[in-house]
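Reminder to self: tokens first, then the designed residues, so the page reads top to bottom the way the pipeline ran.
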């Protein structure tokens, strides 16, 4: 049994306390994830399943409208997000907020925004596969509860780990995908746009498409 699976089992045991349980099969993907959003958030805020929990300041669970038709999924919290415990509040967050307001003509609070992993990787490195795997059940539960009409993965990492798809984001954007029956419209990550402002045109097209789709 691999290390992550053992950890998951230990974690489940700690949640179960004294109640009866039948054991876990080696194929178990999920922890005993609670059904309610608040309970889920509490669980994530207290998660110590992967190494990122050792270096984080704050867990960044996600925020926004739980009834939103759109869900944006970024990669991982950055420095500012880690300090504040809020998603997309740094420079790329400012750009994301402008994109939502100016192109979708919506308020940021009307949309639900989260990340693939909920804790900051040191030096903003890419999240590792074990970190993504530990965090994925949380994301899946968020998607299940919010049940949006469209998911927008922001950038390569979000796209890759949501869909298990290695297509480069430059090729993936502009195409329509599906995740458990929900439409997926990938686009560039705002921090990529900060480095490559000429790519804003493509994101404008993607957001217009999302708007028409809704
Ligand atoms: N980049 C992300 O992918 N997510 C954040 O929350 C902030 C920056």
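Designed residues (214 positions):
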């Amino acid at each position: 049994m691999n290390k992550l699976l053992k950890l998951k089992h230990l974690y489940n045991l700690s949640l179960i306390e004294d109640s009866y349980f039948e054991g876990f099969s080696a194929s178990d993907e999920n922890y005993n994830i609670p059904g309610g959003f608040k309970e889920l958030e509490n669980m994530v805020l207290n998660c110590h399943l992967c190494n990122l929990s050792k270096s984080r300041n704050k867990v960044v669970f996600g925020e926004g409208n739980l009834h939103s038709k759109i869900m944006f999924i970024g990669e991982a919290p950055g420095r500012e997000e880690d300090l504040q415990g809020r998603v997309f509040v740094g420079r790329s967050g400012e750009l994301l907020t402008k994109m939502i307001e100016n192109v979708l003509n919506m308020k940021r609070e009307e949309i639900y925004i989260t990340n693939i992993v909920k804790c900051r990787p040191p030096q903003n490195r890419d999240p590792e596969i074990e970190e993504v795997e530990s965090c994925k059940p949380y994301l899946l539960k968020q998607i299940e509860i919010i049940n949006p009409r469209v998911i927008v993965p922001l950038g390569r990492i979000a796209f890759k780990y949501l869909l298990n798809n290695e297509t480069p984001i430059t090729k993936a954007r502009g195409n329509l995908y599906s995740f458990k029956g929900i439409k997926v419209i990938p686009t560039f990550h705002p921090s990529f746009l900060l480095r490559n402002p000429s790519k804003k045109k493509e994101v404008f097209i993607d957001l217009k498409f999302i708007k028409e789709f809704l």
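Confidence is low (pLDDT under 50) at residues 18-28.
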